[in-house]
Amino acid sequence: MTEGRQCATRRAVLAGLAGTGAALALPVLAGARTGAHVAVIGGGFGGATAARYLRRGAPDLRVTLIEPAERFYTCPFSNLYLGGLRDWDSIGHGYDGLRAAGVEVIHARAEAVDTAARRLRLAGGAELAWDRLVIAPGIDLRWNALEGYDAAAAEIAPHAWKAGPQTQLLRRQMEAMEDGGTFVMVIPGGAYRCPPGPYERAGMVAHYLKTRKPRSKILLLDAKDRFSKQPLFMQGWQALYGDMIEWVGLDDDGQVVRVDAARRAVETAFGTIHRADVLNVIPPQMAGGIAADAGLTDASGWVPVDPATFAARQAEGVHVVGDAALASPMPKSGFCANAQGKVAAAAILADLAGQAPPEASFANTCYSMIAPDYAISVAGVYRVEGGAVAEVAGGTSPLEADAGFRAAEARHAAGWYAAISADIWGA
Amino acid sequence: MTFRSLSCLAALALPAAAAQALTPADVAVLAGPCAACHGPDGHSPGAIPAIAGRAEEHLATRMFAFRDGQDPAATVMPRLMKGYDEAQIRALAKWFAEGRQ
């Protein structure tokens, strides 16, 4: 072993993962890395990113991505589909790009994870052994946490909070609604996927209604008193849609406690009944079910992680990224899931090479469209300080910006979507 | 084992935060989120400017200008760049100027 090879950079060392013959500075590692297999459950923003970046860092590493869907439809930009700015196909992504990057993709549902034996079972019974596991299960909806709202109710009053048939159902209901109808959205408190998402949706639905059914109304019933980018949203709604959108917060009896899907009616904490022509219920949420089945969640329903690596606190060799992880103050956004996927991949590669993980660094930029040429954003940079995530920089679009600024952010939103899609799925 | 190889091992074993110099793996992680808007390795497929292969000094100058509020047309970049110190900005400029290794 030469001195020069010992002093190889981490990148060069990582490139030698899985036994391409690069020198290993620490003999104890020899063999540990050879033939390692990393399994990734979930092919969305977090999981597909982790899979791709594991292969980037270690082109000989065996990486298996397990994702039931052959085409993944993104929650980001699904509001633009509702508003008529995007067609359905444009927010779907296949897995050929990941296969081309050397990721083995299995279209099946992972049904069980044994973190002690380091095995997982697929629907149909096939089992896979893994050395490191990434779980990126996204969210599950807490059925009946809101009285009356279960899977059957969602077929009448869609949540559309997982992009797919629910999103298309909501769009069809908007198309079927008479001019002068009321679109009611129920918005949760607590931690949920995409904090500004409900409010972007309000603007996109308003855009659709203004251009097709201008006498209609949108009523937002919110379990919170404040929300992400609130002054910017309210300014944009007023400027673009007048009084079409009405937001009712917690203090004004906005919290819905009961859903009667058959009647398209909801009841608030103080007993007010609101009737809807289209009823969109965004219910309380938790980490995707397999995370709880694997014993990784805490009482909150989400997964505690070490933010330096996104290793799950409650199992060895398992990393959990994306919406399922407890990573506040990072929001549950696709951008953050992508950033976390990269940090987890780098940590796994370092770990397999017997090294300390590189220093974690994350960023987020969430654009919210209010009209085709009007968007607002929130951005942040995150590091790990004292074992917790800390926001070290960031902020929202200025409230006093002109139309040119809003239009530029709308163009950047489209640019972001193209870029992150290419970064994850290859197209 | 020579002194030099020992120091290399020590550097690898230290937490990155404790080291003054950013390792290539640190810079790769630091550069990770840039791709979400500027495209894979800075090759933008859309409306946001590509940064791959641009001159190192140009990239550094632009990032410092964003950070110091000297670009009135900028949108998110001033908010983001305040989270990066000079060494990090110079490392990112070098990373994207050189392209993927």
UniProtKB/TrEMBL annotation, chain A:
Residues 167-283 form the Sulfide dehydrogenase [flavocytochrome c] flavoprotein chain central domain. It holds the Pfam family FCSD_central. Residues 358-425 form the Flavocytochrome c sulphide dehydrogenase flavin-binding domain. InterPro entries: FAD/NAD-bd_sf (IPR036188), FAD/NAD-binding_dom (IPR023753), FAD/NAD-linked_Rdtase_dimer_sf (IPR016156), FCSD_central (IPR049386), FlavoCytC_S_DH_flav-bd (IPR015323), FlavoCytC_S_DH_flav-bd_sf (IPR037092), SQRD (IPR052541), TAT_signal (IPR006311). It comes from the Bacteria. Residues 37-149 form the FAD/NAD(P)-binding domain. Keywords: FAD, Flavoprotein, Membrane, Transmembrane, Transmembrane helix. The chain crosses the membrane at residues 12-30. This is NAD(P)/FAD-dependent oxidoreductase.
TrEMBL record, chain B:
Residues 1-21 form the signal peptide. It comes from the Bacteria. PROSITE patterns: CYTC. Residues 21-100 form the Cytochrome c domain. Keywords: Electron transport, Heme, Iron, Metal-binding, Signal, Transport. InterPro entries: Cyt_c-like_dom, Cyt_c-like_dom_sf, Cytochrome_c_Oxidase_Subunit. SUPFAM superfamilies: Cytochrome c (SSF46626). Pfam families: Cytochrom_C. PANTHER family: CBB3-TYPE CYTOCHROME C OXIDASE SUBUNIT FIXP (PTHR33751), CYTOCHROME C4 (PTHR33751:SF9). This is Cytochrome c domain-containing protein.
